[in-house]
Amino acid sequence: LDQDTCRWILDVLTKENWWMMVSNGNRDSVMDSGWDDAVPFGKAFIEA
After folding, report:
1. Is 27 helix (H, G, I), strand (E, B) or coil?
2. For residue 45, what are the contacts with CB-CB under 8 A and spacing of at least 6?
């Protein structure tokens, strides 16, 4: 989560006119299954 792109996304999600679809976390995961490394990103985006 400590990445420029993630910080930018979290910032724009606080604005009323921005949204994002949270799906396909498995595509960016380095894991073959479980995708636990993608969970913190999804949680942060949903909470924003």
Report:
1. helix
2. 9, 10, 13, 20, 22
Which structure tokens are listed for 30? 């380095």
- pTM beyond 0.85, yes or no: no
- Please answer whether residues 28 and 18 qualify as being in contact, where contact means their C-beta atoms are separated by less than 8 angstroms: no
Residues 6 or more apart from 6 whose CB is under 8 A from it?
Answer: 41, 44
47 burial type by CB count under 10 A (0-12 exposed, 13-18 middle, 19+ buried): exposed
DSSP 20: -
- Residue segments in the chain with a per-residue pLDDT below the cut of 70: none
